[in-house]
Amino acid sequence: MAEHSIILVEPKTGGNIGSIARSMSNFGLRELILVNPRNIGDEAYTRAMHAQDILDDALIVDSFEEALSHVDLSVATSARTTGSEKKALRVPMTVEEFAERFMEYPGKIGIVLGREDYGLYNDELMKCDIFVTIPSNPDYPVLNLSHAATVIMYELYKHRAEDVRTTTPASAQERERLYDYFDMLLETIDWPPFKRKRASITFRRLIARAGPTKWEFHTLAGVIKRAAMNKGKEDKRE
Q1: Which runs of E-coded beta strand occur in 78-140?
Q2: For 27, which of 143, 153, 208, 209 could close a Cys bridge (C-beta 3.0–4.6 Å)?
Q3: What CA–CA distances, in Å, run from 195 to 69, 120, 187, 209?
């Protein structure tokens, strides 16, 4: 069964932090990671109610990258989406789709929520494995931070697995190696430079959604790495 952490990026109000801690307790989550929080004060503890221990145990980090290092799969959340598959950075899964597809993921999943006013920046989205959104009224799609977190936690709780997955997933480090091999292949085949970033992000999203096992990772990584290296040898002979 998947283990989940909540990662809040530069939250501005103690009230939201406390409300999210309370919802975490409601839905059985324990680990709260805070990236440069502005304020954890009395309001946070008042809103947390009986979940004040989650605030006491919260992990406070200085950088986005450090927060991601504590999870195996990172899931970005945002109300800003696109309907175009060509804009891979903001092509989302719904929260329900994600919860159902990854309910048996045996590693730790980090649910990443951005700032109350700006959400997550593009460079932060690029560093996450999956992008999810909560379907809502297009005339006003932006939910309050704590409300969005609660909806996500509810979907995760609703879809939690009854059986433990027997296969072992590829680790975050292994997936990064696979992405590096793919980028190497793009360079080796002289893929147009202005298209490489989009291709790289598309591949990252595809692999993360697939949730490859270690065996699948080694097979795919071996094929891509050999293709890149063989093409490089051919170019040198020419």
Answers
A1: 93-94, 108-113, 130-133
A2: 153
A3: 28, 23, 11, 21
Please name every residue paired with 9 in a beta bridge, in sequence order, or none if there are none.
35
- Which residue is associated with the tokens 């190696």? 177
Q: What is the DSSP letter of 88?
A: G
Q: 140-186, pLDDT tens digit by residue? A: 888 999 999 999 999 999 887 444 445 788 888 999 999 999 999 99
- Structural Rg of the chain based on CA atoms: 19
Q: Please, what is the end-to-end C-alpha distance for the chain in angstroms?
A: 52
Could you tell me the two tokens for 75?
């899931």
pLDDT digits (tens, 9 = 90+) for 46-77: 999 999 999 999 999 999 999 999 999 999 98
> DSSP assignment, residue 49?
G
Paired tokens of 39: 């304020």
Question: Spelled out in words, what is the top-level CATH class assigned to the domain 3-158?
Answer: alpha beta
